[in-house]
Amino acid sequence: MHTAMERTALDTGALFAAGAQRLRAAFAQAPDSTPDLDAELLLSHVLGVSRAQLRSHPERIPDAAAAGRFGQLIERRAAGEPVAYLLGRKEFWTLQLAVSPAVLVPRPETELLVERALVLHPEPFACVADLGTGSGAIALALARERPLWQITATDVSAQALAVARANATALGLDRVEFVSGSWLDALQGRTFDLVISNPPYVAEDDPALAVLSHEPRMALSPGADALACLYEIIRAAPGHLAQGGWLLLEHGAAQASAVAGELAARGFATVRTHRDLAGHERMTEGQWPKVRPRIP
Fold first, then answer.
1. pLDDT in tens, 120-143
2. Are residues 154 and 226 in the same domain?
3. 20 to 30 A Cα–Cα from 48, which one of 25, 96, 259, 295?
C-alpha cells in the first residue's frame, strides 16, 4: 500500500480513505477494531496536524515522504502492532504517557484502579505501592491527583522502569520512587496504606495472547496458571499493609470469584469486586483488618 502512496500524489482525504480501507480489510474478523480512528490517528501523527485539521482540509496534498511514512505505519498496524506503539504515546487518566514495546499499552479499564484508590483513601497523606508499574500509568495518575502521597512503583523489567522514569520526568512527577524487583519482594520491611497492581493474568494457552503478540509477554501472562501472580501478591500483601490498608487488584473478567475467595481466605475483610465500563468484573479490593487476624 505504501508503495502506491509514494507513486501517487493523493490528497489527505484520499490517503485517509486508502488507509482506513486497508485496515478494515485487515481487521474484518475483529468486531472491536477501530480502523477509521486508527487511520486518522496515524495520518494526523505523520502530518503533524490535529484530527480536526485533517478533517477540515482533506484537499491538502502531503509530500511523498509523508505519504510513504503513513503507508508504512498502516502496514504495521495491519500486522497487529498497537497504535500506541506506532505513535509512541498513549493517554491514560489525564496524562499523556510515552510507551514502547517494553511496556503494556495502558488501557481504560485500568483507570478503575486509580478511581478506587482515590475513593478508598481520601486523606491527603498516604504511602502507596504500585506493583509491576510498566509505563508508570497508575503511579503517575495517583501522583497527579494526590501531590502529598508517597508513591513507590516497582517493576522487574529494567526497560519498563526506564520508560516509567522518563514519563515521571516529562510530567514533572519526579517524586514517585521507582524500585527494581518482583512484586513485594522489592519492598522488604516497608508498609503501605494502599498496595495496587495490574499483574499478568492471562494463561499461556489463552488464544487472546495471539492478538497481543506485540506486547511484552511477561507483562501479560504468568505461565500456565493465570492466577499465579495474583495469588503471590495476595499472600505477601498482609506483611506490607498497614492496619486498615487496602489491596487493589486488576484481573481477568472470569477471575473475580477466585481472587475474592483468596483474599477472604487470607484474612482480608470488605472484599468487593467492581465492573469496568464494559460491564466486566475487572478489579477486586480487600481491606486488611485493623485488628490483625491469624494468617492461614
1. 999 999 999 999 999 999 999 999
2. yes
3. 25
